Structure prediction request, 243 residues.
Amino acid sequence: MVSTGKDVKEVLFGANGVASKGKAPKIVVDSTSISIEESAEIREKLGRLGVKLLAAPVSGNAKVIKAGKLTVVTSGPRDAFDAVAPYLQAIGQGVSYVGEGELSRIAKICHNVMLGVVIQNLCEITVLAERAGMKRHAFLDFLNKSVMGSMFTRYKTPALVNLDFHVTFTPELLRKDIDLGLSAGRQFGVPMPVTSIARDIVQTLIGNGYTDRDFSTLLLLQAKASGIELKPENVKVSDGLES
Prediction:
């Protein structure tokens, strides 16, 4: 798992790549979020070497992994999946096989598009609640207990309450994945107006210099647009991942 398709190619086919010394493995499992086109290109090149590619992007940051709640979505040859599944199951709580080829790349792209849209909406409603007079921790406590609460809203709650924006996922990586989603939308003829707006907001976040902090700094951008300055509430809140 690396950052980009270029990095995947370097790891596999670069001067010191695992498939560059004449002793390529039988199966390669790649968990990077990359485009369908890059994945297909890599699959074809590995295939010429007799190597099967299992595309296996994941859902979950370092804290999710530590809590044992990582999930994996996979696509590629079924026999490769059957061989690898026990190892994937050992690193998380769920493994889904969605079919042949690059389908898991689409699944992960869709997942991360939703990530961008949901975090922006979560920031909007949290700022709205505060502007109306609520404490952020009180509002998010209600939301997390409601039918709209999720693992994501819970583990982002400490960041939104106490303004702890240590990096779990950068705005630039989020922009990359939203761009992959919009590209797929064009390819398959699916309009994505909400995603397009979220992409513009993430770009604005980057343009305002929030490149070295977590993408949840969208909260600060939303607060600024709403004419308020947020302060840490210094309240101990659960991230939903603690055992």
